[in-house]
Amino acid sequence: MSTPSTRPPEGRYGRSSDERADRTLRAVGAVLSVLLLGLIGWFGYHYVAQNEISAEMIGFEVSDASVRVHLEVHKDAGAAGYCTVRSQAADGAEVGRADFRFDEDATRIDEVVTLRTTSPGTSAELLGCHAE
User: What's the pTM value of the predicted model, to 2 decimals?
Assistant: First the structure.
């Protein structure tokens, strides 16, 4: 004795709606994956190739009216730009912010800059550098 099949006969009713939905979902997923990879590649290229100036904060010293920040800047030989530094008080309020320009032809600049503050700062933060 054979057991009855719960599936309809092959080819009699056409494709099932599940198969069409699966094919559509696979196509949409492939397109979205390609777009996401392209977007990640574009951002990566823009960040690595187009960034002509970058810096690292080595350390800082605080006083009552200023913060001395030690910056190490790396840039292309002819590039000019600026780095933005800020200081905050113990309660988190911003007490100082300034842009420091770097126009020299050197590719590596090691400099200590002074950020004046409105009240005693407890920290220093390098917000970023931008080429002009």
Answer: 0.61
